Amino acid sequence: MNKIKLLRNKKNMTQQQLSRKSGVSQAYINELENGKKSNPSFKVVARLARALEVPVKDLFDSF
Question: Domain 3-60 classified CATH 3.40.190.290?
Answer without folding.
Answer: no
